[in-house]
Design brief:
- By secondary structure, the protein is an alpha+beta fold.
- The protein contains five helices and ten strands.
- Strands 3-4-6-5 form a four-stranded antiparallel beta sheet. A two-stranded antiparallel ribbon has the order 1-2.
- Strand 3 (about 70) and strand 4 form a beta hairpin.
- The longest helix is centred in the middle third of the chain and has 9 residues, at about 135-145.
Length: about 230
């Protein structure tokens, strides 16, 4: 069955910042702060829609919607709880890496599906561990524009009454009890909860505090009399 939505009509359903985000060049030294350490470009501004930038450039995007891009096995990823505020990522396979749920930005083709693979990406044929249609945001975009027969594919979020909304930041229709501030990433950087050297390459949880030996209960030994 051929989709009844024209190709140009489907492209209009895609957020204008999505393609630039997928094509941006991440984890390269920032051209504006090349003389500073920890200057990897691992942020993308959804409002400016330009190239990636480093943590030192965040000051210029204080009131903008900013996403932090991370890396897993040399591939660019974004956390689910961050990207799902802006687009619908249903039908995209997610993964849990070091307790953080992520989705990949672009396709990761395989020479051949692994043994026992039941599900594969509809675009790049990569084997998937779950019943999902696509392995990445980029593959869902390509599958939607190419005229996939699933006419319900969309990146638009839906509000309380099923009405499509452009972004969870800008709408009161989003069915969540908490409204996220537009400068979430910027505020986290100022608070020190994310650091410039994270570079997106570590998704591990914080190191637990060392236990104090003073609080440990010790069993007393049997007393011994001193020799005469």
């Amino acid at each position: 069955m051929v989709s009844s939505i024209p190709k140009m009509g489907k492209e209009k359903m895609v957020p204008p910042w999505l393609k630039p985000m997928l094509k941006a060049n991440y984890f390269v030294p920032c051209s504006f702060h090349f003389d500073l350490s920890k200057n990897e470009c691992n942020y993308f501004c959804l409002d400016c829609m330009e190239n990636a930038f480093c943590s030192f450039c965040l000051i210029h995007h204080r009131d903008h919607r900013v996403l932090q891009i991370r890396r897993s096995s040399y591939h660019d990823v974004v956390r689910v709880n961050e990207i799902q505020r802006h687009i619908d990522i249903s039908s995209i396979q997610s993964y849990v890496i070091n307790s953080a749920k992520i989705v990949f930005l672009n396709e990761r083709p395989q020479p051949r599906p692994g043994k026992g693979t039941t599900y594969t990406c509809e675009v790049c044929a990569r084997g998937l561990p779950g019943c999902f249609g696509f392995c990445s945001i980029g593959c869902k975009l390509n599958g939607m524009i190419a005229g996939d027969d699933d006419t319900e594919l969309t990146f638009s979020l839906k509000g309380k009454n099923g009405k499509e909304i452009e972004d969870a930041y800008d709408s009161d229709e989003f069915p969540t009890p908490k409204k996220f501030p537009r400068s979430t990433v910027f505020n986290q950087f100022l608070d020190g909860s994310i650091s410039g050297d994270e570079g997106g390459r570590s998704l591990s949880p914080p190191t637990p505090p060392l236990s104090s030996h003073r609080n440990c209960s010790r069993r007393k030994g049997i007393p011994h009399r001193s020799p005469f």
